Structures are given as structure tokens and as C-alpha cells.
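Quick one, C-alpha cells below. Sequence please?
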């Protein structure tokens, strides 16, 4: 994409769960560059979460190499932020302490500054003293996003981050992520089974096929931002991505993906 070395580089990554007869992931090659949003799109069961767990350092690949900024990745890494499908906030800590949870090594003033900045980026300034239980689903997921941003990661992994939200909140958060990512120099890997989510957000859509999980093809999304979901160009690309997805995984032909 650009001349600089990739933030994240995967070569021939494979995975198999213990006791499983077949591989979960086979020969995954993928590069992520600075400022890029890459969507990993595929139906349920094709190994997306397994790949996220490997990149998060929570699981180890059976084969292959993973480099973060040119260095082998060998466990959880402070430069990688993660947003899961559920916010996973600690209910006994107020919002600010949740956002600052990964910043324990910093002094108080710097931590407060980073927390305030991260909350401002998700438009929740003034929410620091609230309790997680007093937040809506969308607000809680924005706090989770702020927590991931607060450590200034080079790479953010999002595993179906908006899947548990209602459609209107999901669209609003997608737009929000698109806006806050413009001009960012981190890389974002967004895992989704939602074609529209991939089309609205991604610079590139990496389509996965199942059994074993592998990359079927990559589709570049060269549409101007902000993107209109009902725009003509997006609709045209949607039908070609759906074709690609249907070829990669016959289960998707009926659109019954997820
Ligand atoms: N802990 C596990 N042990 C054994 N098999 C697993 C485990 N987790 C997931 N799998 C299997 O690995 C495959 C990929 O799962 P997953 O990575 O969760 O896919 P996705 O996120 O794309 O839905 C599925 O067939 C699933 O049943
Ligand atoms: Mg999953």
C-alpha cells in the first residue's frame, strides 16, 4: 500500500486446536500498514476469532511467522489494543479507571491526560466518573474503544465490535470509528461478518473461506469517505463482495451469514 514496512506481517500462519482433526487456519499471509483499516470478512466458524486470539498473543500458531514492527510476536503486547464484541468493562471501576486500566505504568498526570484524550476521541468527555452500569450499550462500547486507544497502540484488533448493538447504534459507531481513524497512523484490523460494516470502514476487505480457514481473496475499497451506505458505488461493490463471499463459502450464497 505504501513504501514503509508493515506494522503487522503474517506469513504462512496456521493453527489447529488440540484434538481437532482439521486445521482451523491454513497459510494466512497478511500485511497491515500504518493508517490502514483492513476488514477480515467471513462467515461464522471460518477462524476469525482464532486469528484475533493469535494476534492478541492469547493463542499460539502451529506454524508461520508474525512480525509486529519487524519483531516476532510472542505473547500479549502493549502496542496492540483489542476491542471485543462485548465491552468487558470492570463493573467496580468508574469509566475513567476502566479507560486507564492499561496505563498503570505511567504517572498520575500523564495517565489522566491520556484518559481524558481517549474519552474525548469517543465523544464521552465528562463521563469519567460514571459507572459502567449507567451507560447504554453504545456508550459502553465507546468506553471499550477509548480503553484500546488510550495506550496509543500501533495496531487495534476489533472482533465483531458492534455485533451486539442495535442497527442504528451500530451505524453511528461505524461512522465514529471511520472519523476517528482518519489521519491515524495505527493499523486497524476489523473482524466482521457484516459486508456493509466492511464496506463502510475498510480500505481493504480480506475475504476468508472456511474448512480450513484461509484467505480466499482481497478486495480493495477505493471509495471516498465519508461513505454513504446507500451510495451507488458502495452498492455496486457490495454485490461483488457478496459474490466473492458466496464463492468462498457456499453457506453465504443465501446471505445467511453470521
Ligand atoms: N477452543 C476451541 N477448541 C476447539 N475448537 C475451537 C475452539 N474455538 C473455536 N474452535 C473451532 O474453530 C473454528 C473457528 O472458530 P472461530 O475462530 O471462533 O471462528 P469465527 O470467529 O470466524 O466464527 C470453528 O470450527 C470452531 O468450532
Ligand atoms: Mg468469532
Amino acid at each position: 500500500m505504501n513504501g514503509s514496512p508493515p506494522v503487522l506481517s503474517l506469513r504462512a500462519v496456521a493453527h489447529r486446536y488440540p484434538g481437532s482433526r482439521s486445521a482451523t487456519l491454513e497459510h494466512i499471509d497478511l500485511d497491515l500498514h500504518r493508517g490502514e483499516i483492513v476488514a477480515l470478512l467471513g462467515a461464522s466458524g471460518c477462524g476469525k476469532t482464532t486469528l484475533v486470539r493469535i494476534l492478541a498473543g492469547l493463542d499460539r500458531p502451529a506454524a508461520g511467522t508474525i512480525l509486529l514492527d519487524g519483531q516476532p510476536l510472542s505473547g500479549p503486547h502493549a502496542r496492540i489494543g483489542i476491542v471485543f464484541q462485548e465491552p468487558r468493562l470492570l463493573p467496580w471501576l468508574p469509566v475513567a479507571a476502566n479507560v486507564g486500566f492499561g496505563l498503570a505504568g505511567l504517572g498520575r498526570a500523564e495517565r489522566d491526560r491520556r484518559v481524558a484524550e481517549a474519552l474525548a476521541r469517543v465523544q464521552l468527555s465528562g463521563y469519567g466518573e460514571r459507572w459502567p452500569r449507567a451507560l447504554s450499550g453504545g456508550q459502553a462500547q465507546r468506553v471499550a474503544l477509548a480503553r484500546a486507544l488510550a495506550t496509543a497502540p500501533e495496531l487495534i484488533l476489533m472482533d465483531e465490535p458492534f455485533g451486539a448493538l442495535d442497527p442504528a447504534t451500530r451505524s453511528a459507531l461505524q461512522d465514529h470509528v471511520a472519523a476517528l481513524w482518519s489521519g491515524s497512523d495505527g493499523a486497524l484490523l476489523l473482524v466482521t461478518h457484516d459486508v456493509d460494516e466492511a464496506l463502510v470502514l475498510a480500505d481493504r476487505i480480506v475475504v476468508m473461506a472456511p474448512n480450513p480457514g484461509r484467505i480466499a481473496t482481497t478486495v480493495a475499497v477505493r471509495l471516498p469517505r465519508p461513505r454513504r451506505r446507500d451510495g451507488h458505488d458502495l452498492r455496486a461493490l457490495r454485490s461483488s463482495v457478496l459474490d466473492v463471499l458466496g464463492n468462498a463459502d457456499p453457506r453465504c450464497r443465501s446471505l445467511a451469514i453470521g
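The helical segments are 48-55, 95-99, 108-121, 137-150, 167-181, 195-201, 232-248. The mean pLDDT is 92.
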